[in-house]
Write a structure and sequence with these properties.
Blueprint: H1 21-29, H2 33-42, H3 45-67, H4 74-77, H5 86-105, H6 107-128, H7 140-158
């Protein structure tokens, strides 16, 4: 298994022992479909999203307890900058957007929008050095890559 994708630290948390076949199986069924089906079953989106988050939290907590992942001390909790806590809000925003838009947009368009948006934001963060990232100028090749992503999203959304 190639270990460079996570700074060479994947075995530190036991990630080298995980079975990564599940995400591939899930991708075949279409992202957001589970949320959408729960929304239809419950009749409203927010309880469906909360059920998914509670189940996800429970799974991560279970893994952390089994793997004996060290917990941060009270002093360490205050170390990250204020914007580091925004990830939870961004995840919740994406969850609500996905559950509301999945059936309207379809799996391919929804994922193309999400991936393209993340890609474009990442290039901007690198270029500007935001969120603690090292500066990586958005040169001609990166800008061309962004334009190709936008073009790919447009093609997927149209057809």
């Amino acid at each position: 298994m190639q270990r460079s994708w996570c700074c060479g630290r994947i075995s530190e948390y036991g990630l080298d022992r995980l079975d990564f076949r599940f995400p591939r199986r899930r991708a075949r069924h279409g992202p957001g479909r589970e949320h959408s089906q729960l929304k239809q079953g419950f009749g409203t989106p927010i309880p469906a999203l909360l059920v998914n988050y509670v189940l996800g939290f429970t799974a991560v907590l279970g893994y952390a307890l089994i793997a004996r992942v060290p917990w941060p001390t009270a002093n360490q909790v205050g170390n990250p900058p204020w914007w580091a806590w925004a990830g939870g809000a961004a995840g919740a925003f994406y969850g609500v957007a996905a559950i509301l838009l999945a059936n309207k947009l379809g799996a391919a368009t929804l994922m193309a929008l999400a991936v393209s948006g993340q890609f474009l934001a990442s290039v901007a963060f690198d270029h500007l050095g935001w969120l603690g990232f090292e500066l990586h100028p958005a040169g001609l090749a990166r800008i061309a890559g962004c334009l190709l992503m936008i073009g790919g999203f447009a093609l997927i959304a149209k057809y």
